[in-house]
Amino acid sequence: MKLQEQIQRIQEMMNLVTEDSTSKIVEDIKNMLLEDYGEDSWEEYVDKQEIGDCQTIVSFITRSFPEAEKVFGEIEVDEPYIDEYGDEQTLMTHHWVEINGEPYDFSKGTLKDYIDWVDMYDPKVDEPERYYGF
After folding, report:
1. Total count of domains within the chain
2. Which residue segment(s) compose the domain that 86 sits in?
3. Taking the mean position of all CA atoms in its chain, how far away is CA 76?
4. What is the C-alpha to C-alpha distance for residues 79 and 105, in angstroms, rounded to an integer?
């Protein structure tokens, strides 16, 4: 086996390990949130989220999981809305986390009235172009 092939194989194996560890972290976070909030299912937990809960959710995650990095920014909504000052807006303030450099949003339910998610119950960000971190 050539050196280049060996390097490529090692990189592929490392990617699999990272994906597996990320999947475990995501499941552990979901289980912790379910337990802490006393919900029976992930869908129920997400459905009960309200606007503004994202900051608390992300803070709780990052205190419990050092692998998760807090991100504060804005997210693009589907339709413009009128803010409290009477101005039309297309972005909303939002919090999410990054795990191994990838964005995860455990509080998609907080924006259910503003975004028609591809999959609201999957914390993996399916449209990263919507997210603008500071």
Report:
1. 1
2. 3-133
3. 14
4. 20
